[in-house]
Design a protein that fits this description.
This protein has four helices and four strands, in the order E-H-E-E-H-E-H-H. By secondary structure, it is α/β, with parallel strands linked by helices. The termini are far apart. Strand 1, helix 1 and strand 2 form a beta-alpha-beta unit. Strands 2-1-3-4 form a four-stranded parallel β-sheet, sandwiched between helices. It has a single domain, classed as 3-Layer(aba) Sandwich (Rossmann fold). Helix content is about 40%, strand content about 20%.
């Protein structure tokens, strides 16, 4: 596993980052992973389950979320991520538009109603 820790002993307090995934291809996670070294001087990575085995599940300043809400557990996870972050940022086509997972007609109506509720609440 990649060590994403950063020595903060001589730095000011930095914002914290979580990188989370819902149902998706993980393409954005790979792009973030390839570029995370550019973020480390400016923020602390608290959660990145795709890249590190030790993750802090506490509050973070910024949560990047890739993947779409295509199952009930995705909306539950998204609500939890939002509750534990100052800012929530959708990253990638799946997170923003739903992508291929959105085409599952059995779930579209129920998930659209829950997504609209989620957006209006937050």
């Amino acid at each position: 596993m990649l060590d994403l820790s950063f020595d903060l002993s001589h730095h000011k307090i930095l914002p914290t980052l979580a990188v989370e995934s819902l149902t998706g291809c993980a393409g954005e996670l790979l792009v973030i992973l390839e570029n995370v070294d550019k973020l480390l001087p400016y923020m602390v990575v608290k959660r990145f389950p795709f890249a590190q085995s030790s993750n802090d599940n506490g509050f973070c300043d910024i949560a990047l979320v890739e993947g779409s809400v295509s199952q009930k557990h995705d909306i539950e996870k998204l609500v939890q991520i939002r509750a534990n972050s100052r800012w929530l940022v959708a990253v990638g086509n799946c997170a923003i538009y739903g992508c291929v997972q959105k085409c599952n007609k059995a779930n579209v109506k129920a998930l659209d109603e829950k997504s609209l509720w989620f957006i209006s609440k937050y």
